[in-house]
Design a protein that fits this description.
29% of the residues lie in helices and 25% in strands. With 377 residues, the chain is α+β, with helices and mostly antiparallel strands. The strands form 3 sheets. A 7-stranded antiparallel sheet has the order 7-6-5-4-10-9-8, with helices on one face. It has a 7-stranded antiparallel sheet with strand order 14-13-12-11-17-16-15, sandwiched between helices. A hairpin with a 2-residue loop joins strand 9 and strand 10. The model has no long low-confidence stretch (mean pLDDT 92). Its main location: cytoplasm.
Length: 377
């Protein structure tokens, strides 16, 4: 048996140790790379990020690279669980820890924060995300013209708001956004920038979207985690008896699903029109364009026990457009909504998400949201 065959077999055995069966950084299953300088097993995507910080991490393929005996021994003595206890010893509860489904900038800044900047190795330290005030320039997309222009944004924990100003020295903000109504999610493909962040909030009971980016990846990820830190502060005030585990899911979140479907108008005698849909838990919003500032309409998805249901197919006699033949019918207590998808796999994915939402029990806040929807419509 060659030296490299022996190393490959040994590494395969080390992979069986608890925690080594998933990527140390994003949780992707079956990692195929390792950092022989950090002692962690990682996936192919994260190995590319590690390769960009060569002073900190030296990466090798578990099956294709040549491993020295002392490197194999180092992996055996360390591994994902032990290194997690070192490099993630003091991650604040509000900090967004990305998964393998998240975009490049989130995963890169998480890896750099852990290993390059060593932000989380010392328990008890104060983080810059918790300073209570963040003031800086972000490139913001114009609501009407679609141009990205530099705008000043100010996040204040004391006021519980984000404000943005059209000029840096402007006395009055263009908008004042309550932190407790904000959702922030990275949307690089939609926005067309690797650091593209979508900020969504309620304005007069309607959803408003703001699209921003910063040329520096660290800066835009710091904004996200600063927003989450302020949100957690306000949630702890609002729900003094709640645990961190109960509050963290209420912070900024990724949308459950986004994509194109076609829908009919309210009378269902109109033709189907292609729209961009965003499912944000119980709120199904639709837009003419993915980068619209306001939704053209919203549908509240309640619990199955309260008159909400979803099924594949359309009522008899419904005429679809061209290739969009895969129908979905959503029934609410007030009306029926008809949609079509271009492919069966897309239809099945939407159906699963709708069914999951309608099967979940509603919280008191969601009953309040349901009442607001009925009042508005």
């Amino acid at each position: 048996m060659s030296t490299n065959d022996r190393a490959t077999r040994a590494l395969r055995e080390i992979l069986q140790n608890p925690g080594n069966d998933v990527c140390a950084d994003c949780g992707a299953p079956d990692p195929t790379w390792g950092s022989c300088s950090l002692g962690v097993f990682i996936c192919l995507a994260c190995s590319g990020i590690h390769r960009n910080i060569p002073d900190v991490s030296k990466v090798k393929s578990l099956s294709l690279s040549h491993w020295e005996d002392h490197e194999v021994q180092f992996m055996a003595e360390n591994g994902n669980e032990l290194m997690k206890s070192k490099y993630e010893a003091a991650v604040p509860v509000y900090y967004y820890k990305p998964t393998h489904k998240d975009c490049q900038v989130l995963r890169e800044q998480w890896i750099r924060a852990k290993y390059e900047r060593r932000e989380f190795t010392e328990p008890g330290k104060t983080f810059k995300y918790e300073e209570g005030l963040r003031d800086g320039l972000l490139m913001k997309r114009g609501r009407d013209n679609g141009q990205f222009l530099s705008r000043r944004f100010v996040l204040s924990e004391r006021e519980g708001t984000i404000k943005y100003f059209t000029k840096y020295d402007a006395k009055e903000p263009k908008a004042v956004i309550k932190v407790d109504s904000i959702n922030a999610t990275f949307q690089p493909e939609k926005i067309g920038n690797p650091n593209g962040l979508q900020i969504t909030y309620l304005k007069d009971y309607s959803t408003r979207n703001i699209f921003v980016y910063h040329d520096n990846g660290k800066e835009i990820v710091d904004w996200l985690n600063s927003i989450r830190a302020v949100q957690l502060h306000y949630l702890k005030v609002a729900f003094p008896g709640a645990t961190d585990a109960e509050l963290v899911p209420k912070l900024t979140r990724n949308f459950l699903k986004e994509g194109y479907m076609e829908k009919t108008g309210p009378r269902q005698t109109e033709g189907f029109k292609k729209r961009w849909f965003t499912l944000d838990h119980r709120r199904l919003m639709y837009f003419k364009d993915p980068l619209d500032a306001f939704a053209k309409g919203e549908v509240f998805l309640g619990n199955k026990d309260h008159g909400y249901s979803v099924s594949a197919g359309l009522p008899a006699g419904t005429h679809c457009n061209g290739a969009w033949q895969h129908g979905i019918t959503i029934q609410t207590p007030d009306r029926c909504f008809l949609f079509t998808c271009e492919t069966e796999s897309d239809q099945q994915d939407w159906l699963k998400h709708f069914d999951d939402v309608m099967s979940a029990q509603m919280s008191p806040q969601e009953f309040t949201m349901q009442a607001l929807f009925k009042h508005r419509h």
